[in-house]
Design brief:
The protein is α/β, with parallel strands linked by helices. The chain has 6 helices and 9 strands. The protein has a single domain, classed as Vaccinia Virus protein VP39 (Rossmann fold, 3-Layer(aba) Sandwich). The chain starts with 7 loop residues before the first helix and ends in a 16-residue tail after the last strand. Bound molecules: S-adenosylmethionine.
Length: 221
C-alpha cells in the first residue's frame, strides 16, 4: 500500500504555533516567513518526515540545520524591516538564508564547507530565492567587498565576537552571534548606536563551532 505524503504545510503551521509563538517569538514578519519556507526541502530526503521536529537535524559533514526556534530567535534579534543588506555566516543547508531573504532586501551568506555551500546555492535557486548569494569562504573574517552591513547573523559559536564582523557593521547595525562560554553558548546581540557598541544577551543556545581565523581552530589541522 502506498504511504500518504506528509502534510508539510500543516506541520509547518503547527511548528510556528507551538515551537515559536508559544515560546515567545512575537515578530509577525518572522512568524510569517517561517510559515512560508518549506523546511522539508532543506533536510536530507530520508529525514524529511522529521523536518518540523523541535531540534537540529544532521545535514552531512558533521553539520546541522538549526532548530526552528533558534533560526526564529536570531531573525527576531536582527530586527529586520525589509530594506536591509544582511551578511550571514554559516549557510549550512540554506534554510536560514531563505528565511532571512524574506525579511530583508538581500542576503550574502558565507559557508566554509564547499559541499554544503554549493548544495545550498542550488537549493535556493530551485526555490526561486533570487536575493541571496552564497559564497564559500571563512566568514569569521567577514566579507569586506560588500560591507558595511545593516545586520549580521552568525549561526556558529565563537569564543568572542569576531572583530572583522564588528568593523563591518553599518551605523545602527546589529550583529547577532552565539558566544561560547564554559557552561553554554549565549546568543548575543551587538548594536552600533551613535558610534558606541552595546551588547545584550538573548539567551542560551547550542551551536556548532565557528571555525576560522577569528573563530576556533580547525580540529582537522
Ligand atoms: N543556518 C544553517 C541552516 O539553516 O541550515 C545552519 C548552520 S550550521 C548550525 C553552522 C554552519 O556554519 C555549518 O554549516 C558550518 O560549516 C558553518 N561554519 C562554521 N564555521 C564557519 C566559518 N568560519 N565561515 C563560514 N561558515 C562556517
Amino acid at each position: 500500500m502506498a504511504h500518504a505524503e506528509p502534510d508539510f504545510a500543516a506541520d509547518r503551521a503547527r511548528m510556528v504555533e507551538r515551537q515559536l509563538r508559544r515560546r515567545g517569538v512575537s515578530d509577525e514578519r518572522v512568524l510569517r516567513a517561517m510559515t512560508e519556507v518549506p523546511r522539508e526541502r532543506f533536510v536530507p530526503t530520508k529525514l524529511r518526515g522529521r523536518a518540523y521536529d523541535d531540534g537540529a537535524l544532521p545535514i552531512g559533514r558533521e553539520q546541522t540545520i538549526s532548530q526552528p526556534w533558534v533560526v526564529a530567535a536570531i531573525c527576531q534579534a536582527l530586527r529586520l524591516e525589509g530594506r536591509e543588506t544582511v551578511l550571514e555566516i554559516g549557510t549550512g543547508s540554506g534554510y536560514s538564508t531563505a528565511v532571512i531573504a524574506l525579511l530583508a532586501a538581500e542576503v550574502i551568506s558565507l559557508e566554509r564547507i564547499a559541499e554544503l555551500g554549493d548544495a545550498a546555492r542550488e537549493r535556493l535557486e530551485q526555490l526561486g530565492v533570487d536575493n541571496a548569494e552564497v559564497i564559500v569562504a571563512d566568514g569569521s573574517k567577514g566579507h569586506p567587498a560588500r560591507a558595511p552591513y545593516d545586520a549580521i547573523a552568525v549561526h556558529a559559536a565563537t569564543p568572542e565576537a569576531p572583530h572583522s564582523l564588528i568593523s563591518e557593521l553599518a551605523p545602527n547595525g546589529r550583529l547577532v552571534v552565539p558566544i561560547a562560554t564554559a557552561t553554554a553558548d549565549l546568543l548575543t546581540a551587538f548594536s552600533r548606536v551613535d558610534g558606541e557598541l552595546t551588547q545584550e544577551t538573548i539567551g542560551p543556545c547550542r551551536f556548532v563551532p565557528l571555525i576560522g581565523a577569528e573563530g576556533f581552530a580547525d580540529p582537522s589541522q
